[in-house]
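Notebook entry, structure prediction.
Reason for the run: the old model in the group folder had no record of what sequence produced it. Starting over properly, with the input documented here first.
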Amino acid sequence: MSWVTRRPYSIVTLSEAAKLYKTDCCRHLAAAYGALLASHGGRVPTKGELDVTTLPRVVPHLILCAVTPPDRCIYRVVGEDVKSRIGNRVGRNYYDLVPPARRHHSMWAINMLVAVPCAWRVEIEQVYDSGIARLVEATAFPLASAEPGIAGFIVLADCEIGPSEGAAPGEVTLIGTNILRRDLIDIGFGVDEGFADLVPGPEAQAAPPLLDYPLDATPR
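New structure, fully documented this time:
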């Protein structure tokens, strides 16, 4: 399989991003983060300053990760809806689940959230060993860290866009993903305008399902 780089679809401000969201959970997290940012004079909030109890519609779709560049992004919290799709990955390093070919670009996408700092929105196709494919929207925002050895945290809402035909309850065997679209969000500090995703080349995209390498595969 060949791979190509793909630039973000758009670069928007946080207020402009509101019109892009397709799911309520992502829209609510973005609104809550924007309000928190404004209440702190534009300063990136800490993990403790984000009160998720005020976001009951987001909590089942919430992910919280601790980021230590270059190669650690540890799941701290995984919401119940996310667990039902990808399993309980608390304590695992996200990058261990990324195909080796894409790992550098995944680190780039996550580390820039903390380093710039900025945010993003993505549409992702998740494919399972049953052959079922789910279209998911996710949005991620940075949180400042007061913990030694942790550069920052990222909080995400990760929500399915519409129902999946033939979905089976408890299905958790995710075998591959494909990034269909990414929008970068400027939260007041700019964005990394050089960023690009690594995605399957045109010949792979012409034959559905759109898959990168399975999560446990090695590129050839």
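Summary: The radius of gyration is 17 Å.
The old model has been moved to the deprecated folder.
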